From TrEMBL:
Protein name: J domain-containing protein
Species the sequence originates in: Bradyrhizobium cosmicum
Domain J: 101-160
Domain of life: Bacteria
InterPro entries, A to Z: DnaJ_domain (IPR001623), J_dom_sf (IPR036869)
SUPFAM superfamilies: Chaperone J-domain
Signal sequence, start to end: none
Length: 160
């Protein structure tokens, strides 16, 4: 993380400079490409290297503009890696209730009031692809029918 912060500061300094020191930028980006453990950052740095090397002794405005853009791309990746993450890290996703699992299996929205007709239409739609006579799996078809029953009669089935 320390290395990312130092790369971030150096890249921001290079990008904000009026006249770019492209030799320094090339050295920094080569270091990033060589030492980064993140695949995306390494790829962005490797793609920026040829343009930065071309810009070293080149007064062409389009080449320096491309080099500035490439430094910006590498800087954006570094920003993404150093940005704070919210939420609980490594937390397991919340388990779905049996009704929510049934809704997901039938392709129905989770937080919408459903009628029996909505449930049956979704069941027919899903059954076309899972029915054993149409090349589907018998167990998947049985699970689909159970999902429909859970949604039509919600109180009859206890939480699994």
């Amino acid at each position: 993380m320390e290395r990312l912060e130092s790369w971030k500061l150096a890249l921001e300094r290079l990008r904000s400079a009026q006249s770019g020191d492209w030799a320094e930028a090339g050295r920094l980006v080569a270091e990033i490409a060589r030492m980064s453990s993140d695949v995306t950052l390494r790829l962005a740095a490797e793609q920026a290297l040829p343009v930065l090397r071309q810009a070293v002794d080149n007064d062409d405005h389009s080449v320096t503009l491309a080099a500035r853009r490439r430094v910006g791309v590498v800087l954006d990746v570094v920003h993404d890696l150093t940005a704070p993450r919210f939420g609980r890290r490594n937390a397991m996703p919340k388990k779905l209730s049996s009704e929510d699992r049934a809704r997901r299996m039938l392709g129905l929205p989770l937080a919408v009031q459903l009628t029996c007709e909505d449930i049956n239409q979704a069941y027919r739609r899903a059954a076309k692809s899972t029915h054993p006579d149409h090349g589907g799996n018998a167990q998947a078809f049985i699970d689909l029918a159970a999902a429909r029953d859970i949604l039509i009669h919600p109180g009859a089935y206890k939480e699994a």
